[in-house]
Amino acid sequence: MKRFIYILILFLFAGAAFAALEVESKMIGRQENVPCIFLRLTVRNPSSQKLGFDVTLKDSYTNSSILIRNQEISPLKEQVFNLAVPLMKSPLAEVVDSEGGKTFAASSWDFKIFLNICDISNFATEKQATDFSTIYYKTSANAVSQLEPDILPDNWLCYTPFLSVFIREDAYNSLEPPEKEAILQWVDAGGCLIVYGSDQNREVNRMLGTIRYQSASPLELNDLGKKIAWSPWLDQSKTRGSMKDFPYQVKKSAGKYGGFILTTAFLIMAGPLNYSFWKKRKRIRMILITLPVISISFCVIIILYFIASQGFAKKGGSVSVTILDENTDTGVTFSRNCLFSGLYPLGGFRFDRTTGFYPFIQTKDFSIDFTKFLHLKSGIFTPSVNFHYLTAMPFKTRERFVYDPEEKTITNGLEQNVEGLLWKEGGQILVARDIAPGQKKKLEPFPQNGSASAVPFSHESFSSEFLSESEAKFGASFLSNFISAPLKDNRVKYIARIKDNPPSIQTGIKISAKKNTAFLAGLE
């Protein structure tokens, strides 16, 4: 009997040692036509040994997949992944451990467009959340997620599905630096953060977004206060605008007609000519040899022709707006990109995981490696077709312009050449052109009737002075979309056009044409 008990104990221990990983998937934030969803994936290791594992997120309706490789988890431990998942609505998670065990976890399809962060003891009731959702989302379903502040994301993209985020002031003050930076980067990009439980009642502008301090939770009052709109870059992802107006798209595919001629020649030679030739010689079986030879030969010829006519060069360009706050040394760059390539880019597209990436086409099957960065290995992009997509990237910098009010001079403290600068000084508009890095230049009155006060300080004035007709057709509206609100609040100190794209632009792949229109707006 004792021997049987010992064997049973050993068997149970052995079973525990190789138990499959436990996985939980929870949808925290989701909204239609937003670049990312916020998915929280929790992996638990019930076994007594350290396990490696891979995570695969699979789309419910396509063959698309996102892979996170080479993860490890200690015995009896739990690992939480706060994921900003691009281009999927409700992924199915598959976890495969190093012992061959497989575990699956699905998440809900619920829309979640508000987030409340506080200790669980202060969570809003289900009724409060549902009543609030009924008012602001016109639905009886609960559109509010609630999280404790102990494990928040360190990637600002996780917050992009939310129209607004609410956080208790004590929780906000206790956030770790990476978590606080992520939420502030989201605010800078146009988010609205409401800090409640505060003895203050004020609103602070941060770049394109706001932080509002108030005493009561919006969920308790069923009141958001001021009307809240989507941030400008999310408006861009929701409403694409005209692709035809984009100044740097490739108008025509090189080698298009030559490829058609070669294909037609192949069909004629491999078919009727080949058949007639051997039939006359009564050696029809030779087709079994000549047809593969002709096919291989034409494949090589067509490949060489397309390489010669289209090459490996990536054509296209980008229009970007960089918003810079010199008081906090922070900035965020939004770019609209167009890429044309005759071949799928070797190595695919590579973005930092904190770069928002949104293609302006219907999502097709794709494969992304999400282990260290967002590596689009295949899919979405189609060779020989203009590929339009949007990116957003927050960054830190010490670069700035140095203004001397007595001399009315400006020193370029950027690493890029400045092609044109519109500077606001009191009631005057000043202008400078062609300022090299480190160069000091005299600012002159805006050239309209010799009077600097003849025109308002606006994106229209800037566009008319520094953009060509084709650039202004698209670039002026793109610039306006991001700086209209700061201009209205009188917070824009300058608007500049820089010659090269700033380092904060991530196009995912090098575009050799180097065509761009890059704007820089400084806030005060």
Descriptive labels:
28 strands; single chain; 524 residues; seven-stranded mixed sheet; 34% strand; alpha+beta
Shape: flat
Q: How many runs of DSSP E, i.e. beta strands? A: 28
Radius of gyration: 29 Å
Overall helicity: 25-40%
Give a quick account of the main beta sheet: strands, pairing sense, barrel closure: 9 strands, mixed
**Head-to-tail CA distance between termini:** 82 Å
Summing up helix and strand content along with how strands pair, one would put the structural category as alpha+beta
Q: Poorly predicted ranges (pLDDT <50, ≥5 residues)?
A: 3-17
- Total number of helical segments? 10
Strand content: 25-35%
Please list the strands of the largest sheet in the order they lie side by side. 17-20-15-14-28-27-23-24-26
Give average pLDDT, whole number.
86
Quick description:
With 524 residues, the protein is α+β, with helices and mostly antiparallel strands. The protein has helices at 2-17, 126-137, 169-173, 177-188, 218-221, 232-238, 256-280, 287-310, 459-466, 469-488, and strands at 22-29, 36-44, 51-58, 65-73, 78-86, 92-97, 102-106, 114-117, 144-147, 164-168, 192-196, 202-206, 209-213, 315-325, 330-340, 349-351, 356-359, 366-369, 374-379, 387-396, 401-404, 409-412, 418-425, 428-435, 440-442, 444-445, 492-498, 515-523.
